TrEMBL record:
<dbReference type="InterPro" id="IPR036102">
    <property type="entry name" value="OsmC/Ohrsf"/>
</dbReference>
<comment type="similarity">
    <text>Belongs to the OsmC/Ohr family.</text>
</comment>
<dbReference type="Pfam" id="PF02566">
    <property type="entry name" value="OsmC"/>
</dbReference>
<dbReference type="InterPro" id="IPR019953">
    <property type="entry name" value="OHR"/>
</dbReference>
<dbReference type="InterPro" id="IPR015946">
    <property type="entry name" value="KH_dom-like_a/b"/>
</dbReference>
<protein>
    <submittedName>
        <fullName>OsmC/Ohr family protein</fullName>
    </submittedName>
</protein>
<dbReference type="GO" id="GO:0006979">
    <property type="term" value="P:response to oxidative stress"/>
</dbReference>
<dbReference type="InterPro" id="IPR003718">
    <property type="entry name" value="OsmC/Ohr_fam"/>
</dbReference>
Amino acid sequence: MSHYQKIYETSAVNTGGRSGISYVENSSFQVTISSPKEMGGDGNGTNPEQLFALGYSACFNSALEVVLGLEGIKAKSMITQRTQLFKADGPDFKLGVEIEVSVDGKSADEAKELGEKAHEVCPYSKVTRGNIDVTIIGVDYDASKEAR
């Protein structure tokens, strides 16, 4: 990593694990953390898998925007990232990820191809590569899913 220069750093604090509070230092962002009902929690807060999905989807879409720019494509893009938590015997857990890629005006196959290129440059994809299974899926753009 010697040819990389740090351009940004952030830090987050958690107390109480999955039954606690997490916040980003030097920011107003704070969330109550709870386990989902499927894991025996009350499901009233945000869980780590949701936060991972938010971060990965934003980072991946930023990488996709870079790819679109390099290819001269001016179009809206949307990422739906699904984070799955798997459990094996004992205290052994693993994440899995599905990333749906859609680009306005592009077919599902074209969106998948662009998503695979974004997967090569996305920092989240780089850190997860070889550690968790990531599946890239191309889908048609659906404007009804745009941020509310």
